[in-house]
């Protein structure tokens, strides 16, 4: 089988909500990573086979197949197609998987993958509000078949985050300690210059705006996002932000043709479904299934990136798998660096690749919870 290789990976800074990137049109934010990706690699732009982008809530500035429109906005050839993927929070990780599958099948050789999300312009509730304008209180309301199977149990990320915390015995104070560590790691990594090689400046912004100095005392003062879920506050949740990311995936034939140096090989890709009422638990069984398919154990994984949608999600994964927190999200996770929904998958992969290179590790695993009880798992091998 043909192998799929990662040649390059980059990202924008994460701009905080209503921050330095808030005014940038989503298409332009996507173009801001595609243009340098093409410029700094030795492949003529017209030779790209496809552009695959992740994006969630494709309305407003994010509508109209933003993979295609971002490519065109970057001034790149009209002949190159594009498609936009929505696997909820795992959208751009799934974009990586689709690109790898295209290369492995032998049908394509050069693919730009990425993701973009401007959560300032298109808040996470926008799609729900649009649905309400059409008379739907939720996507599941009045579905007789859904209600027959799941009843009226909430499909709600806050409910799931609280349920996971309760099930695994994770207290609010435990989560606040974890969240504070995420910020400390991100701030330390920035101070050490670890992000410089992966960030491309956007309109003068060259550093992440989302990591912040905080204390356990400040976190303890915050009110829950909903009184029904007493442990879930903004402090233990991923940061809302605006960002984009992009990656170049090619075949062995393309490596030779364009004289490229591969940085990593995609060793394994998979996705698994779980109970949608649990909503955020899927990374645990997905990781177990992926390792079995890949004939690996966590002992052989040098680094892990798991999306910190909420502290309880990552902490439950660590508890269940027994993997080392010291080797997980080593430069901070989404609590500090933000969770720009459609862009997060490639942002995490970019972080994983650069950290494997910095530390000399061989295998890195990435996973994340996704709406509807889903989780993607990717394993890459540094070359």
Low confidence ranges: none
Distance between the termini: 18 Å
Tell me the helix content.
25-40%
- How many helices does DSSP assign? 13
Measured by DSSP, the beta-strand proportion falls in: 15-25%
Taking all residues together, what is the mean pLDDT? 95
Sum up the overall morphology in one term: globular
Largest sheet: 10 strands, mixed
Number of strands: 10
Class of secondary structure makeup? alpha/beta
Return the string of H and E elements. EEHEHEHEHHHHHEHEHEHHHEE
Radius of gyration: 20 Å
Structure commentary:
- This protein has 383 residues and is of the alpha/beta class.
- The chain contains 13 helices and 10 strands.
- The protein has helices at 26-39, 66-73, 91-104, 126-133, 144-150, 157-167, 172-191, 216-221, 252-258, 283-294, 311-321, 334-337, 344-359, and strands spanning 4-11, 15-16, 50-54, 82-85, 110-118, 241-251, 264-273, 303-306, 363-370, 374-382.
- Strands 1, 2, 3, 4, 5, 6, 7, 8, 9 and 10 form a 10-stranded mixed beta sheet that branches.
- A hairpin with a 3-residue loop joins strand 9 and strand 10.
- Helix 3 packs across helix 13 (344-359).
- The mean pLDDT is 95.
List keywords for this structure.
alpha/beta; ten-stranded mixed beta sheet; 10 strands; globular
């Amino acid at each position: 089988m043909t192998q799929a290789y990662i040649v390059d990976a980059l990202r924008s800074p994460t701009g905080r909500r209503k921050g330095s990137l808030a005014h940038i049109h989503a298409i332009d934010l996507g173009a801001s990573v595609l243009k340098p990706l093409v410029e700094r690699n030795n492949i003529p732009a017209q030779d790209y086979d496809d552009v695959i982008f992740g994006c969630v809530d494709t309305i407003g500035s994010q509508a109209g197949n933003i993979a295609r429109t971002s490519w065109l906005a970057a001034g790149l050839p009209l002949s190159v197609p594009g498609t936009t993927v929505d696997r909820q929070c795992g959208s751009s990780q799934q974009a990586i998987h689709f690109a790898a599958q295209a290369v492995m099948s032998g049908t394509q050789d050069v693919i730009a993958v990425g993701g973009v999300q401007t959560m300032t312009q298109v808040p996470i509730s926008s799609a729900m509000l649009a649905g309400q304008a059409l008379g739907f209180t939720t996507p599941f309301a009045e579905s007789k078949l859904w209600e027959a199977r799941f009843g009226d149990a909430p499909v709600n990320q806050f409910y799931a985050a609280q349920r996971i915390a309760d099930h695994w015995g994770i207290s609010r104070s435990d989560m606040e300690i974890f969240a504070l560590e995420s910020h400390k790691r991100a701030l330390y990594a920035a101070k050490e210059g670890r992000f410089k090689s992966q960030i491309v400046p956007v309109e003068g912004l060259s550093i992440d705006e989302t990591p912040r100095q905080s204390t356990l005392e400040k976190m303890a003062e915050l009110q829950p996002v909903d009184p029904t879920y007493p442990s879930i506050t903004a402090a233990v949740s991923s940061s809302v932000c605006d960002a984009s990311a992009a990656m170049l995936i090619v075949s062995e034939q393309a490596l030779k043709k364009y004289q490229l140096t591969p940085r990593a090989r995609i060793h394994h890709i998979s996705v698994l479904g779980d109970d949608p009422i649990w909503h955020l638990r899927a990374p645990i069984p997905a990781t177990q299934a992926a390792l079995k398919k890949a004939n690996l154990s966590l002992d052989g994984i040098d680094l892990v990136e798991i999306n910190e949608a909420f502290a309880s999600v990552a902490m439950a994964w660590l508890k269940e798998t027994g993997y080392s927190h010291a080797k997980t999200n080593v430069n901070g996770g989404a609590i500090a660096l933000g969770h720009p929904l459609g862009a997060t998958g490639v942002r995490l992969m970019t972080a994983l690749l650069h950290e494997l290179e910095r530390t000399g590790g061989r295998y890195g695993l990435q996973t994340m919870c996704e709406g509807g009880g889903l989780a993607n798992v990717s394993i890459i091998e540094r070359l």
